[in-house]
Write a structure and sequence with these properties.
Blueprint lengths: L4 E3 L5 H12 L3 H6 L3 H22 L1 E5 L4 E8 L8 H4 L2 H10 L4 H13 L6 E9 L8 H16 L3 E5 L2 H9 L3 E2 L4 E2 L5 E7 L4
Parallel strand pairs: 4-5
Antiparallel strand pairs: 1-2, 2-3, 3-4, 5-8, 6-8, 7-8
Length: about 200
């Protein structure tokens, strides 16, 4: 049986934020950005809310009909680096830090480091984040969300890009046709991220 997927609207914002927060609270990169667990529990929702608002403004959020999984996508023009000009310039990461956690330089640092490795020169679909409710992980919901867009990429001849934030997610994306792009990103005194690229399949 297929997974029913729809485009999320503004009325789904809090649901999307809750999904992202629950799925990424214990992610290695989130743990690096917010090393103190209590602080992470309190502040992480504001970070994923900021990401959600950016994608609602400039991209698309796909949501399973039952509200248990979501994927945040941006369509990136050939000359772009993944975020609209307001968030892509030098001020964007600093503004993000000021809005989310002003005393935490890693909020700004992660935004700058991922922007630095984002490929330019070819239009592509950027999977910024994907989240499945913890109690529903392993059921294929995330794969269904990703493949629905990859199928369109294949039809339109458009590549796709993402950064895997764990070895487990990297293996999933490799099964979907993504390959490591350049070298992994080793966060300072932190975990590794894998920039991954997928050419469209004919």
């Amino acid at each position: 049986m297929g997974v029913a997927i729809r485009a999320a609207g503004e009325a789904d914002r809090e649901l999307v934020v809750r999904l992202l927060d629950a799925a990424f609270q214990d992610d290695p990169v989130s743990g690096w950005v917010f090393p103190d667990e209590e602080h992470r529990r309190a502040t992480h929702p504001a970070l994923v809310a900021a990401f959600t608002d950016i994608v609602f403004a400039d991209g698309r959020i796909d949501l399973t009909e039952d509200g248990t999984a979501c994927a945040l996508w941006l369509s990136i023009p050939a000359a772009d680096h993944g975020l609209d000009p307001e968030h892509r310039d030098d001020e964007g990461p600093a503004q993000l830090r000021a809005a989310v956690d002003p005393d935490n330089e890693r909020v700004e640092q992660i935004a700058r480091l991922t922007a630095d490795i984002h490929p330019a020169g070819r239009a592509h679909e950027y999977l910024w984040m994907i989240a499945v409710a913890p109690e529903r992980q392993g059921e294929g919901l995330g794969t269904a969300l990703v493949t629905s867009v990859l199928d369109r990429c294949d039809r339109d001849g458009v590549p796709a890009y993402l950064e895997a934030s764990s070895a487990r997610s990297r293996k999933l994306y490799e099964r979907l046709g993504f390959e490591l792009l350049g070298r992994p990103l080793d966060l300072p005194d932190g975990p590794r991220m894998w920039p991954m690229w997928r050419e469209p399949r004919g």
